Amino acid sequence: MTQKQAENLLTQELNRLCGELGVNPIPKLIFSRRLKTTAGCLRIQHKKGLTTALTIELNPAYLEEFGYSRIYRTFLHEVAHAVCWVRYKDHGHSKLFQKTCLDLGGSLSPSQGGREESWLSEPWRWQYNCPVCGMSFKRKRRFSLPKRRRYKCRNCGARLDTWRETRL
What we know:
By secondary structure, the chain is α+β, with helices and mostly antiparallel strands. It folds into 2 domains: 3-110, 2-Layer Sandwich (Zincin-like), CATH 3.30.2010.10; 126-167, no CATH class. Helices cover 38% and strands 20% of the residues. The protein contains 5 helices and 6 strands; from the N terminus they run H-E-E-E-H-H-H-E-E-H-E. The strands form 2 sheets. The chain has a 3-stranded mixed β-sheet with strand order 1-3-2. Helix 3 (68-88) packs across helix 4. It is globular, with a radius of gyration of 18 Å. It starts with a helix and ends with a strand. The mean pLDDT is 87.
């Protein structure tokens, strides 16, 4: 199945589901090559505290590698995010989201039960080490400085902008 065919089918399904579930505004659906390490995401745009637009982005490389049935379950996962946002202003993977996702038939797991995750095979590029407690973690993408100022260590509370950043 081509990307255009999948996009048309998923857009029709999106309109049907949003009508049934009362999701307004109806999300726009796009396949984005910008996604590198995820199968899909929901983008939420706000203006003065109101949701003005929702966009479901799906990774075309994921469609190419795993086919329509897998991208469909990822699509349902993202629709569940849209439903939870519109109804409850819930944007994470909470219990409420998990129930909504399973009710829709979406996937809660990136690998969807399989071990084929070669599309996620990009190597770790950055390591962050807390100077206070020594906790460390690796990332594929570097944190921007505004994000580093916003986050804190979950163990000791040290701001991330004080951490040592190492390129791997």
